[in-house]
Amino acid sequence: MKPVLALCCALLLVPSALAAETLKYVALVDGGKKAGEQTVTTGDDGVTRVDFIFKDNGRGPELKEEYQLAADGTFQRYQVKGVSTFGAPVDETFTRDGDMGRWKSTSDAGTHTFTDTALYTPLGGTPATTSVALAALARRPDGKLPLVPSGTLTQRRLASMDISSGSQSRTVDLMALTGIGFTPSFVWVTREAQPRMFAYIYPGFLQLIEDGWQGTANTLEARQKIAEREALVALQQRLAHPLPGTTLIRNARVFDSEKALLGGPSDVVVRDGRIVSVSPAGQAKVDAQQVVDAGNRVLLPGLYDMHVHASSWEGGLHLAAGVTSARDMGNDNATLQQLMAEEKAGTLMHPRVIPAGYIEGQSPHSSQGGFVVKDLAGAKQAIDWYADHGYPQIKIYNSFPKEILRDTTAYAHQRGIRVSGHVPAFMRAQDVVEQGYDEIQHINQVMLNFFVTPETDTRTLARFYLVADRTDGLDFDSKPVQDFIGELAKKQVVIDPTLATFEFLHQREGQLSPIVADVADHLPPDVQRSRRAAELDIPDDATGARYKRSFDKLVDFTGRMYRAGVPLVAGTDELPGFTLQRELELYVQAGLTPAQVLQVATWNGAKYSRTLDEAGSISPGKRADLVLVDGDPTVDIADVRKLALVIKGGQAYYPAEIHEALGIAPFAAPVKVQPAR
């Protein structure tokens, strides 16, 4: 989902004004499979018309855009209509009359008084807007392009390549654009007076490239990976603080994640990335090279985010939120293997990655990544690859053939691998539990158990709208519901609810996403604005109220499962660095105590990712993955945002320092590692 959203918010092209021209781009996924296209036509009247469609995993945007440029290359008039990734209507306009600009979208409206060149940044536009930005930026002698409503766009050339296709050849430059979002966007740009985008590549997921040049996409992706890696190495060197030898953390209240209890003041000794001892405050007698004075703050084990789709540039956001271990729930295998190798080598600022091997079935709705199989032989081959590469579990996806599910789960268990995933289309959750699932991802996949029929195709958006529409009317005290919860508890089937992600079921246009609502003042204005866009089509207040009641019942259902003895793990599948905290708050709303919630986010994460012997608690011999909190999250779970220090093995990170580098206002002052006296 994230690459598509980034693409639609950030990128693509404008041909020369007043020259009739049509230019086409194709979107490729999964090693070259076409998943969309964009056609950009500029008429003799100077009006550019864009048709954009992208479909992957049974969802995606469809947009029609039209714009005209002013003399300075910025928008004079702009309009886009269509539907977003999950079906919400898109309808946005911008006009400039003299010095006054006005915009209106389904989520916001505003005005801007122009005093100089500035570019309006659409909230729900096609990728075409980035090339408008590139051309306007090229005119700026200071290399900075002010943005409306806020922000400033800059660019830096990272690499250049000479490429050819048939008889054609050209030189393109890889540019890093900063000023929108938390991290840079990377775009391959034509080298001409009025530059435009040639290709946008999200390594391992998407290649959007000018039609006719598809054969160069893999070469460009390989070069982009090298350039991004160099930038990421520099970021790690700047923000990671090595802890050589022995470190004494003194006077910290240590959270016992196994018992969900907060202890008294203690000293924790760390040496070479491992915990050596935990003792009452003042009793640690050690010759330390550096000291951390915890000042009676709470010390937690490193948190687990049990549902991510790992990306190199998101590592800093995770670590600044105290996430030192992240379970990847579906990725391009080669890309993930490279990311994991770089993290282990210490060159990448990123949590440790626990991989879940992704297996999908062949269908028109297939999601890309991992292995896409058509029969049991293919499923076994995928399982063998994952087992041989040390994966502790697999994740089965929507189009997986239901006829081979039982034999697939049996073979995975034979190879010593846990089985988790979505519920394949035309099945119910109780079916996959009976056929061997150890874990189910997403609360909607659990709840669909009560709504689907053998004819319901949950590879479509029905898997969201059914839950939003019908959960409100479901009787949780009925026998079918109680029997199902009892079966989950009896078989100890783990649930990865990702509740915070599913708040999009009730978010209305213009409402700030609950994921960031409580911390919006800390975020860049463009991020705040982007988080006011709805995902689902909610046509009226009555529908909105019903969807909100349905979501509240999803939270209630999660609490009921926990109290019945169903294991939970805390995952997100959404904005890194902020979603996990919201997820934990929702568990408190579901009836868990803050201490129980912290146990889920630490001990349970380690237990069900099979890393409990290495992490998940503050115990001698385990990795020194530690989080120092400037507050008491065992009393107020919201304090888990107030992180003063994060230690991951032999490196210390200051969340405030990472946040400042990403344009985020810090949540707590850092507690810094000091040389021993």
How many H/I helices? 17
Helical residue percent band: 25-40%
In percent terms, what proportion of residues is strand? 25-35%
SS elements, strand count = 33
Mean of the pLDDT scores?
A: 94
The oligomerization state is single chain
| Poorly predicted residue ranges | 1-19
Question: Which shape, going by the Cα principal axes?
Answer: globular
How large is the radius of gyration?
Answer: 25 Å
Main sheet specs: 15 strands, mixed
Q: Strand order within the widest sheet?
A: 8-7-6-5-4-3-2-1-15-14-13-12-11-10-9
Helix-strand category:
alpha/beta
- State the end-to-end CA separation: 50 Å
How would you characterize the overall build of this protein?
This protein is α/β, with parallel strands linked by helices and 677 residues long. Helices cover 27% and strands 30% of the residues. The protein has 17 helices and 33 strands. It has a 15-stranded mixed beta sheet with strand order 8-7-6-5-4-3-2-1-15-14-13-12-11-10-9, sandwiched between helices. Helix 6 packs parallel to helix 7 (405-414) and helix 10 packs across helix 14. The protein starts with a helix and ends with a strand.
Structural topology:
Layout: H1 2-10, E1 21-29, E2 33-42, E3 47-54, E4 62-69, E5 75-83, E6 89-97, E7 100-104, E8 109-113, E9 119-120, H2 129-138, E10 145-148, E11 152-165, E12 168-178, E13 185-190, E14 197-202, E15 206-210, H3 217-239, E16 241-242, E17 246-256, E18 261-271, E19 274-280, E20 290-293, E21 298-301, E22 303-308, H4 315-320, E23 323-328, H5 333-345, E24 352-361, E25 371-373, H6 376-388, E26 393-396, H7 405-414, E27 418-421, H8 429-434, E28 439-441, H9 443-447, H10 462-470, H11 479-490, E29 494-496, H12 514-517, H13 525-530, H14 541-563, H15 579-589, H16 594-608, E30 625-629, E31 643-648, E32 651-653, H17 655-661, E33 674-675
Parallel strand pairs: 9-10, 17-20, 17-21, 22-23, 23-24, 24-25, 24-26, 26-27, 27-28, 28-29
Antiparallel strand pairs: 1-2, 1-15, 2-3, 3-4, 4-5, 5-6, 6-7, 7-8, 10-11, 11-12, 12-13, 13-14, 14-15, 16-32, 17-18, 18-19, 20-33, 21-30, 30-31, 31-32
Helix pairs in contact: 6-7, 10-14, 15-16
